[in-house]
Task: structure prediction
Amino acid sequence: MADGRLIFTGTVVVDLLLQVDALPERGGDVLASSAGMTAGGGFNVMAAAARDGAEVVFAGRSGSGPFGEVVAEALWREGIGVANPPLESADNGYCVVLVDADAERTFVTAPGAEGMLTRADLEAVRPTASDVVYVSGYSLAHPVAGAAVAGWLTTLRTETQVVFDPSPLVGSLDADLLEATLRRTDVLSTNAREARILRSNAHPAPAAGALRGMLRTGGVAVVRDGASGCWVATEEPAPAHLPAFPVTAVDTTGAGDAFGGVLAAALTRGLPPLEAARRANAAAALSVSRRGPATAPRAAETDALLGGE
Result:
């Protein structure tokens, strides 16, 4: 059977990247040591999956204008297919990303065309049984797009896998949309902070186990824990711990996106969840060793790191 596609329903914005020694105090100001502009948000997930060898289709919405042009060029450069034409009435949103000396990042986002995805836009995309649909909490945060995505998920084939990353906005998402999305989720990919918001467990291992109960029957919960690796809860009695690959982190921007994209790409090839998560761990490790948001490795680089264990 041929590999499936990754169908991405999330949002793409333009990242305005600022490297700072430390965040300013309230009302203060700091000078950035470097600055740049690049496609970001869900683009990082799609780029990671495409670089890992998956066929990727962007089923979300983009706009027309200077930011939309940045997004269109980035998608073309990575060989990512586009299901919907740009909206003429709006531009893409943008995100100010502050990366401090500890490689931690802080975001402020102004929304745009990416939040205008409709049910009709999604109905034009027809996932097959072998496809993997990727859903982001950033989509659910937009009233129009959130309702469209959650409703569309209920129409998918039973065999079509859904990967859900609830995003840092998980605590402010509409409870009904969040619950409906979780009930159709086959693989949940969340970081430790988001897992605590969802299940109030201090440690990621019991959090992963508890999160399984919120998913579709047979679902798998993955809780990422930074330099400690990740915990994967399957049907086994206890969650499995997959250690991180040791690297020197210089920029954690996009690490979760690299993990999610490679995780989903591995699932399109039929890898079991534990193997897919291990591969995603390796890709995320390579990602944080480089500066910038879309720093996910090529498949050969991930293969080399996995083979060097």
Summary: The two ends are 30 Å apart (CA to CA).
